[in-house]
């Protein structure tokens, strides 16, 4: 501690003796850490926007199905509506909204074309609270209720079928009796989502779909939303206890690709962090080695005056720690200002057509994650000190005799 008190003011004065070298080191640290923190915020905003856009269509944060439905999603693997225990769990703390759906594979036929689709029988009121699809309606009207036997289809599907609002299409699917069930439906609305989604899903009233297929009140899934992802495991456990015979899965198990993308975001950040650490290490080592070579006489004089090698090592390491620490603080402040200036969102509307293919939202909202501003700066600071140990080790090996050889 006494050595620390002696060397601290000396180290502080030494880092400002060569402003150019100090400035180069600060630029290396500030730019590197700033890029990591800002990139982390942007990538997290991108991942959150993609996840919310995909989950907001149909998936939700979780779904409940009959056992076997996920392996063979057809009319033979349906389930009854939620019972009292399951309703209590879905209305409990942590769940924001939930909706029951009837989803079956089918074929749609217009006057000109026949295409494979998926029929979704929904409760329009419940669907508006849990899904973003009702808000994507661009022409016509939405479904009026459970008994509404009209359909809402995607604009791209309508173009492929060469049909429009007010025209009829025929839906064909397997009925409850195992035979082909077919019925004509009027198109009352068109929605605009990504092209693959538009081509796949046709919406009608749930009761109307059940009647068309000869079902009583069976459904194929219950989708629910959980505002805080941290509460999802608790909600899932509560649902599994309430409905042990049903298959309850969260969004990570329902969409493996989305889960993989969410996990890869963190990996990308750490890859970028590793690249920045390598680049900063090269810069720090070069500048610190140059500082050591320029100060051989100084270190030799210190040794001649009785300064022990370990104190020379401590002095050079302390200089690096202070210098890198200043750079870390400046980078953190600059990153906070940068992210805060983007708090109103980054509008990507000009790239809407391309983003649609990835189910990506058109506005990114970068946020400051306290954990990032603790972990990444600490890693950079510690790694900076570690890579500076080599120049510090070279400095402690300087002897008075070696210093005399460099005397002018």
Q: What features would you highlight for this structure?
A:
408 residues; 18% strand; alpha+beta; elongated
Span of the ends, CA to CA: 36 Å
Question: What is the succession of H and E elements?
Answer: HHEHEEHEEHEEHEHEHEHHHHEHEHHH
Structural class, please? alpha+beta
Beta fraction of the residues? 15-25%
Which stretches of 5+ consecutive residues score pLDDT under 50? none
Q: Looking at the structure, what is the overall shape?
A: elongated
Radius of gyration: 32 Å
The number of helical runs is: 16
The structural domain count equals: 2
Largest sheet composition: 10 strands, mixed
Residues in helix, %:
40-55%
The total count of strands amounts to 12
Overall pLDDT score: 82
Tell me about this structure.
With 408 residues, this protein is of the alpha+beta class. It folds into two domains: 2-54 and 259-405, no CATH class; 68-244, no CATH class. Helices cover 54% and strands 18% of the residues. The chain contains 16 helices and twelve strands. The strands form two sheets. Strands 1, 2, 3, 4, 5, 6, 7, 8, 9 and 10 form a ten-stranded mixed β-sheet that branches. Helix 10 (256-294) packs parallel to helix 14 (372-387) and helix 12 (309-341) runs antiparallel to helix 15 (389-396). It is elongated, with a radius of gyration of 32 Å. The mean pLDDT is 82.
